Amino acid sequence: MTKLSVNINKIATLRNSRGGDVPNVVQFAKDVQRFGAEGVTIHPRPDERHIRYQDARDLKPEVYTEYNIEGNPIKSFLDLVISIKPTQVTLVPDAVDAITSNAGWDIIKHKDFLIDVIQEFKQNGIRTSIFVDPVLKQIEGAKATGTDRIELYTEAYAHQYGLGNTEGVKPYVECAELAIDLGLGINAGHDLSLDNIAFFKKNVPGVQEVSIGHALIAESLYLGVENVIQMYLNKLKAKS
Ligand SMILES: CC(=O)[C@@H](O)[C@H](O)COP(=O)(O)O
Ligand SMILES: NCC(=O)COP(=O)(O)O
Question: pLDDT tens-digit profile of 28-74?
Fold first, then answer.
């Protein structure tokens, strides 16, 4: 069974665009869980341009499914996550100025750092996952860090699938098979969507969790906009 964790960064981006508190991030997290989401993912970045560190704290008592916090384990992130103790931390090597995550770890190069950080999170009872490109030697490297899981970076799959190239799933299948052999848990995320998720799920074995944000929010706009326009029209038709 593959769990759906909803990434709510975009809700914070929308809120921040106007200041104020609309939409309310905590309420949104409560609602997605009520609608069946099996996890909530956030990815606070140091500039707090979308999810803020305070959001991460405010969400803690309201996330009763799996709470997954993603980010680059700089000191402030490490302190934040250890103070919150979510279900899972996903380590992502994103640069401060990256628009979004754009690469997995070079685990071979950063092995010692990752071993230390993972040990610290695990000592605090937090499950760990490492964001990784679908490259076999990186999966082997992940095993050596002591991490519980990997998160396969699915941007390349999504891009290829969008071009009609279903072969793009192959490196993910191979890496998932290796991860299973090594006893690593498997998550996946980035640019997964209603269009490409079923093929990924059908072909890649053992995926325990997908975290989806950008497409899910964009799709929700389209699937909801007709209803909302009708509601406005009905209110405007009402006699004053
Ligand atoms: C690791 C990953 O792929 C996600 O955490 C993603 O980067 C977060 O979403 P945003 O880039 O939309 O904040
Ligand atoms: N870990 C991936 C994630 O949380 C969401 O990525 P995206 O669906 O916003 O591309």
Answer: 999 999 999 999 999 999 999 999 999 999 999 999 999 999 999 99
Q: Is 110 a catalytic residue?
A: no
Q: Does residue 214 have its Cβ closer than 6 Å to ligand 1?
A: yes
CB 205 within 8 A of CB 152: no
Q: Which sequence spans correspond to the domains of the chain? A: 3-237
Q: What is the mean pLDDT of residues 136-152?
A: 98
Quote the ligand 1 centre to 100 CA distance (angstroms): 5
**Cα–ligand 2 centroid distance for 41 (angstroms):** 8
Count of Cβ atoms closer than 10 Å to residue 231 Cβ: 10
What pLDDT score does 107 carry? 97
What's the complex ipTM?
0.95
Alpha-carbon torsion (169, 174, 175, 180), positive or negative: positive
Q: Which fold has domain 3-237?
A: TIM Barrel (3.20.20)
